[in-house]
């Protein structure tokens, strides 16, 4: 069993020659939580940690090379790698006459449900955009990073890439025909995340969703989402807590995550405002007012999982106001 | 054909002896728009005009008497009158040992779809609460006024009573088990309303709604509602305009309102941010940034209806920051 609070990025930094060299840029790309309770498919937020480290280097050869500085064994073929697909998308859109060498050190475990592939895609897109002199807007970068994400998830969605690029809480109003991301106002707020090391296939998580929902249930869901957006804007923690209720997705998807109800219940008892499944799981997240409450909640989550024999990690993080940052 | 912009309340005030007499109170209760596009069943707002005028007078006899100062021929039997039912509800809840004489002059036409019955119920509840020394909270008054509204609509809902009591834009997060109304932040904003004088039975408007909706459509709806709440809070008129899209209710209910598409299209051309069906119709409302735009939109609406031979009224009003006011 593993139990670790990531207190920041690893001290072993990926190779980076000089900050002033505009042929090379190093970025930090945060983990993100998507499908925030009643905001299924539209509401997400960025964590302060863990973050992936990405160095992008301009090379004259018009190709994309990927070097991994971690042990996750992800593909190096750019056509099969989220970062590679995203890199090619941005080079192509820019009509660039150069290629890229990309070094990635992932601190966000693939398959954890906290936006690992989005961090790879967004990190590369923001880095390449920086090399290009910042020609793309945040909205455009979301669109480009989505192309990488599509490789990982099989469908176009911006749930994780939007908060990864924008930071903070984001609401994806639309991705088609145009990407329309709304950066929300929000108060100081913290997240506790538990990542049980089980695999949930995105296809299964998707297939168990109902095709139709009762109108009454949908109304309740949008009432809660509207209230949650208002609660975040007015820094009303009580309203945030009351609004974090999902009557559509959580009831069916929680069956894929052992001890979900127990984790949620223990978290609320330990002071969480509320929470739910992160992305399509298996991670579970909870929000709190303070860092110390977040630590208590993470401990309560861990206490439930120690009884299961399933390996897990917990994370404690402030919601980051910034997304991918140039280091 | 009738075409009139109500520029305020009528100059013929209902009988009112003295403001300082705490046995009597006069209130003004505003018209309201419910089911604001993507916020079906949860989002509403209060208009500055038209307003109903309600005088409530304490009488020693433990009964409720209703006197109408208008020509709408509404029931005077308190058990069959929205204001009477609401009055009885509040007296009963307070355990009051007195009765009431209620004079009502309605300037909001019954059946118009801009909260006529809610104004009667809320006006009385706020007035009686004032006589009682203000013992009920706004949330409690919404609950009490809902009892009156139930008589009018056949179901418990707070879509109109919430903005009528609170003013401004309100989001009804929940009415069961407890009433939870969120008063939203919003910018200076105006409404144009056209009331075609046709009858839409609430039962018919309700029966044509689908029992179930595709999850994809529901997601789009809550994305738009979340964005609309955010757009109102940050005073972002462009975002407000983009978010006012209803893929669930308007497509089916608009068939009940002649020339709906033409009115909407002409309004958008005349500068409206967006809009839709007010309540369950037949009124149509549009929002604008300025009063002059609202006037242009009302004229564009009227121009469409002059071709129909259907009588109509138009209204131009600022969104009122206050709900029922003690006069």
Using the alpha-carbon principal axes, give the shape of chain A: globular
Structural class assignment of chain A: alpha+beta
Strand content of chain A: 15-25%
CATH architecture designation of the largest domain in chain A: 2-Layer Sandwich
Would you list the SSEs of chain A in sequence order as H and E?
A: EEEHEHHHEEEHEHHHHEEHEE
Summarize the structure.
The structure is a homodimer of 327-residue chains. The first copy, chain A, has 327 residues and is α+β, with helices and mostly antiparallel strands.
How would you portray this structure in words?
2 copies of one chain form a homodimer. With 327 residues, the first copy, chain A, is α+β, with helices and mostly antiparallel strands. Chain A has 2 domains: 24-184 and 322-326, Ribosomal Protein S5, domain 2; 190-318, 2-Layer Sandwich (Alpha-Beta Plaits). In chain A, 34% of the residues lie in helices and 24% in strands. Chain A contains 10 helices and 12 strands. In chain A, the strands form 2 sheets. In chain A, strands 1, 2, 3, 4, 5, 6 and 12 form a 7-stranded mixed β-sheet that branches. The radius of gyration of chain A is 19 Å and the shape is globular. Chains A and B meet through β5, β8, α6 and α7 of A and β5, β8, α6 and α7 of B. β8 (212-214) of chain A pairs antiparallel with β8 of chain B.
